[in-house]
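Appendix C: a fully annotated inverse folding record. The material below is reproduced so that readers can follow the format used throughout the book. The structure is listed first as C-alpha cells, followed by the designed sequence.
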C-alpha cells in the first residue's frame, strides 16, 4: 500500500514548477479527451460527510448517497483505492474499486490528484476495520486542482501563509473552520438576544464627511464626483444617536469599523463591532446587556461558563465585579484619587508610581487618574470586571456624574486584561456637548490627530432633544478570541490586514 502524491516536492527532487506542469498536462489530456471538468455546472448532493457519520446507525447504512468534496488523502491498493473526501461538514472515506466503477473509469480516476474536487455516488457501508465509508459506483471529476496541497506531515503551519491564504488554512486545518463557526454562532446569538428585547437592526454610512464617535485616526479617501475628502467610519455612534432623536428607541448595528492605527495581537485596522442605543436607560442597563450577551453566548455556544483564554481560567457566571476607576486604581496601584482634589497633586501622585501623561494632554486630575488606570491597572484585570466612572477628559460623549462632575457615567468591560465593551449614559446636553467638542478641537490643534471633530449636524440633532439614553459598543473580534481561546485577532478574522509581499 502506498500514499499517492503525499511526498513533499523537495524530497522527490521535483521543483514546484514541475509539479504544476504535470497537473496542467493532466488537465490538457482531459480537455483533449472531451472531459474538461470545468464545463460541469452542477452536481446534486444528497448527503454530507458528518451527516452520514452521525446518522449511520439511524438510517444511512445501506443507503445510496451522492456526496461531493475535495480529495484530501489517497491510499492505493491496486485495483481498490481508498480516498478521503472532505466537504463543508468534514471528511468521509470513499472506497473506489475497479469492479464497481469499470476499468475505463478506474483508469481515469487513478490519474487524478490530491486536491481534486469530485462527486461520488454510492452505498454507505462499514469496512472490515469498522470505518464508515461510501462504496463508489460512480465518481466524477468536478474541478481539477492545479496546485499541490501543503505536504502531509506538517500541514500549513506558517502563520503568515495561513493568514494570506486563508483558503488553504481552512482546507488543511479543520480546527480553523470551527473558530469561524463559533464567530457565526455568536453574531447570530447576539442578534437574537437584542431582537428579543425590542431592538431594531439598522445600517449607517461607512463614508462620512466628518469623523467622530471615538478617539482614533481615520482612513481618508476622495469622492471624485463631489470632489471632497471623506473618512471611513471609526464608529457608528453619532448616526445611531441621531436615530434615537428621531424616535427609534432601541437600535443596533453590527458592522465593520476602520481605524488607521497599528497592528498587534488585539488590533486590526478593520474590525467588527456591535453598537447599540436604548432610550430611557443608562450605563447600568448597558452593563446588564453586556453581561447577558457574553455569559449567555458562552452557555449557548460552549455549554459552560468556565472557559480558558490566554492561559487563564475565566469564570463567566453572571454576577460580574463592578469597580469605579478610583476604586480600581486604589486597589491595584495604591493611589487614592478619591482623597486628592488638586490637579498638581494628582499629576505628582501619578509620576510617583512611574506614570507619565501624554505631552498633548492637560495636566489634570482626570487625566492623571486615567493614565494610572491605563498603565498600571488594566493589565491586572483577569476575571470579568466592569470599570465605571471615567474622567470627563477621556469621555467627550458621556453624561457627567451628578455626584462628581469630574467623572462620567461610563464603563469599560475587561476580561483577561482586554477591553471587550465600552458604554455610556449618553450626553444629551447640547451645550455641554458643544463645549466638549470644542475641547477636542483644541487637542487636534495641539497635534492630537485622534481627537474628535466638531459635528454641527449632530449638535443640531440633539438640540431637538435626545432622551436619556444608554449606549454601548462591543468588539466582536475580541469576544470571538475569548470564546475560541485565540491569542491574536488574526485568528478570528478570515482576511486580516497583511503587508503586501514584494
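Designed amino acids, in order:
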Amino acid at each position: 500500500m502506498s500514499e499517492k502524491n503525499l511526498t513533499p516536492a523537495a524530497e522527490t527532487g521535483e521543483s514546484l514548477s514541475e509539479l504544476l506542469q504535470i497537473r496542467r498536462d493532466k488537465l490538457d489530456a482531459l480537455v483533449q479527451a472531451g472531459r474538461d471538468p470545468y464545463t460541469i455546472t452542477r452536481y446534486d448532493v444528497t448527503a454530507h460527510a458528518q451527516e452520514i457519520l452521525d446518522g449511520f446507525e439511524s438510517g444511512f447504512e445501506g443507503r445510496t448517497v451522492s456526496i461531493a468534496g475535495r480529495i484530501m488523502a489517497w491510499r492505493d491498493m491496486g485495483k481498490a483505492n481508498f480516498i478521503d473526501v472532505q466537504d463543508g461538514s468534514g471528511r468521509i472515506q470513499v472506497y473506489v474499486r475497479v469492479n464497481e466503477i469499470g476499468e475505463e473509469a478506474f483508469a481515469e480516476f487513478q490519474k487524478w490528484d490530491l486536491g481534486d474536487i469530485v462527486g461520488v455516488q454510492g452505498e454507505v457501508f462499514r469496512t472490515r476495520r469498522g470505518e464508515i465509508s461510501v462504496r463508489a459506483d460512480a465518481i466524477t471529476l468536478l474541478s481539477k486542482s492545479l496546485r499541490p496541497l501543503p505536504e502531509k506531515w506538517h500541514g500549513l503551519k506558517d502563520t503568515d501563509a495561513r493568514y494570506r491564504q486563508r483558503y488553504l488554512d481552512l482546507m488543511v486545518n479543520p480546527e480553523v473552520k470551527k473558530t469561524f463557526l463559533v464567530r457565526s454562532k455568536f453574531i447570530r446569538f447576539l442578534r437574537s438576544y437584542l431582537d428579543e428585547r425590542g431592538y431594531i437592526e439598522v445600517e449607517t454610512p461607512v463614508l462620512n464627511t466628518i469623523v467622530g464617535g471615538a478617539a482614533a485616526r481615520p482612513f481618508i479617501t476622495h469622492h471624485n464626483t463631489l470632489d471632497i475628502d471623506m473618512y471611513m467610519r471609526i464608529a457608528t455612534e453619532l448616526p445611531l444617536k441621531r436615530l434615537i432623536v428621531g424616535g427609534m428607541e432601541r437600535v443596533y448595528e453590527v458592522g465593520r469599523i476602520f481605524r488607521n492605527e497599528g497592528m498587534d495581537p488585539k488590533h486590526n485596522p478593520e474590525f467588527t463591532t456591535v453598537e447599540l442605543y436604548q432610550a430611557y436607560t443608562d450605563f447600568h442597563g448597558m452593563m446588564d446587556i453586556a453581561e447577558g450577551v457574553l455569559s449567555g453566548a458562552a452557555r449557548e455556544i460552549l455549554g459552560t461558563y468556565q472557559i480558558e483564554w490566554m492561559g487563564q481560567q475565566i469564570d463567566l457566571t453572571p454576577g460580574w465585579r463592578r469597580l469605579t476607576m478610583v476604586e480600581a486604581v486604589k486597589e491595584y496601584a495604591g493611589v487614592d484619587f478619591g482623597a486628592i482634589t488638586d490637579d498638581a497633586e494628582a499629576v505628582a501622585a501619578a509620576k510617583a508610581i512611574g506614570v507619565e501623561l501624554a505631552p498633548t494632554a492637560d495636566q489634570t486630575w482626570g487625566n492623571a487618574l486615567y493614565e494610572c488606570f491605563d498603565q498600571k491597572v488594566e493589565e491586572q484585570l483577569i476575571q470579568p470586571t466592569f470599570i465605571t466612572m471615567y474622567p470627563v477628559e477621556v469621555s467627550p460623549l458621556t453624561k457627567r456624574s451628578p455626584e462628581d462632575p469630574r467623572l462620567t457615567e461610563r464603563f469599560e468591560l475587561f476580561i483577561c486584561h482586554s477591553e471587550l465593551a465600552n458604554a455610556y449614559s449618553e450626553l444629551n446636553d447640547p451645550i455641554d456637548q458643544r463645549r466638549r467638542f470644542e475641547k477636542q478641537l483644541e487637542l487636534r490643534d495641539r497635534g492630537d490627530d485622534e481627537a474628535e471633530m466638531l459635528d454641527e449636524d449632530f449638535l443640531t440633532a440633539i438640540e431637538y432633544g435626545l432622551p436619556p439614553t444608554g449606549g454601548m459598543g462591543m468588539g466582536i473580534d475580541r469576544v470571538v478570541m475569548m470564546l475560541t481561546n485565540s491569542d491574536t485577532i488574526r485568528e478570528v478574522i478570515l482576511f486580516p490586514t497583511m503587508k503586501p509581499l514584494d
